[in-house]
Amino acid sequence: MSYLLLSVLCPGIRLRSVFCSAFGTLGAIYCLSVSGAGLGIGPKCLMKGKWDYHFQETKGAYLLNYTQWNLCEEPPNVVPWNVTLFSLLVAASCLEIILCGIQLVNAIIGVFCGDCKKKVGRREVELCRELACSQLPPHSLSFPVGHCQLRIH
Q1: Is residue 84 over pLDDT 90?
Q2: Which residue ranges does UniProt annotate as crossing the membrane (predicted)?
Q3: Number of domains within the chain
Q4: How far is the C-alpha of 84 from the C-alpha of 82, rounded, in Å?
């Protein structure tokens, strides 16, 4: 309990990781909503002498009707460019939501459960070193100490 209190009162790497992951998740959600709206509304283009968001009334149905894509006179090929850009942003933001969400859960678990390095006592490390040095050849070894790996060179 005191470790949790210490983590909250003195924000360290774990608490910063929680905040960074939360901000990353919020940014990814914002990107997803803006790019989804951009796909739904469609590009602003010149059609029949008028600059407007002509595909807004279709509620995204223009995405599957390729014949409507050529109705925009200016700028040329604006609909495929718009669809490609916002589709890539939707895919990237979905991936970012997944990765930041996993990191957020990991960071929260790290704040509440702590780090295994804090739980290994000095005496336990000394006993393992004595055991390793007395029974094994003197080269680099790696063996578990509690939940951690101890390396002796």
Answers
A1: yes
A2: 85-113
A3: 1
A4: 6
